[in-house]
């Protein structure tokens, strides 16, 4: 890969089989910080429902840990297959897995067993991928495919369970299912139309299309994972006034000089920036009233201006619940949470001047001090969404 700053965006989306409360597909990711790697695993358990979910969870967890520790793939595959319980009906212990192990340099390894073949979409040019087949000694009837290559900026790796390729099976237009070729065509059309579409949005669109092919009633668990190697999308979130009023000018300079998207959370913070940059604040009257979240405002040069602690507290709740932005009624918190998910490197500039309003004992306990809410948001972004987070206290 050519030099330059890069980021690995990983996201997934899924639908459980119609009539099931839980999906038998499991998607997990883990960041190996000391090596600059992200390992992602998609596993599809035998059947559907709780039993399939247990099988898939065991498989995905083991595959994730073994790959992160660089264990030999033959040995790790044997341990996984030896560990899974035998199905009393089909007399097999079966759970598929696809493992994508990508480094920040672009070096990539992919291990596949049982799932449809992964797709590599490169906007300019193609890459001939050589796959090596491996058979575990004690499981000669199982084939594991291994491939290694270097990705370039804007490359995407898309991998999914057979609920996508087999969608619509038995129907007049798709007697053998939607098929890998049609899936590939759909993905490329979306990327051609939206060149910078995020991993989150692309995975959601593919699952929604598979469900549509299935007649809007999923006949199997449907899951898609996307790994997108790209230049990072940066977001600056400024919240809280600096501890020392003499540093207000530093806050304004940061706002003016920082590239990428910018958000202000907090009335005092917004007033400082507005005064020092001579930019008026206008309340956005176009948005619907939401009793839980104060309305947002607009200021030249900023993508969003919101109230402070109440909004950040709601953002934390949304991220912890793994909300789907497209299913939510838009408000300031939903917009900010969506921007956080669509960004790669998030910097929080947190002022530490105490706001007397938050010392009122009548304010709910969950309205923690601003810096503690930001810290918890950062933890969620890093652990669940693989974002790179920087916190600077002012």
Task: Tell me the strand order in the biggest sheet.
Answer: 2-3-4-5-8-7
Apparent shape: elongated
> Topology as H/E string?
EEEHHEEEEEEHHHEEHEHEEEHHEHE
Radius of gyration: 23 Å
Number of distinct helices: 10
Query: Low-confidence parts lasting 5 or more residues at pLDDT below 50?
Result: 364-368
CATH homologous superfamily of the largest domain, by name? PPM-type phosphatase domain
Distance N terminus to C terminus?
Answer: 37 Å
Q: Helix coverage percent of residues?
A: 25-40%
Beta-strand content bin:
25-35%
Overall SS class: alpha+beta
Integer average pLDDT: 89
CATH topology of the largest domain: Phosphatase 2c, domain 1
CATH architecture of the largest domain: 4-Layer Sandwich
CATH class of the largest domain: Alpha Beta
The tally of domains stands at 2
Taking the sheet with the most strands, its summary is:
6 strands, antiparallel
Overall number of strands: 17
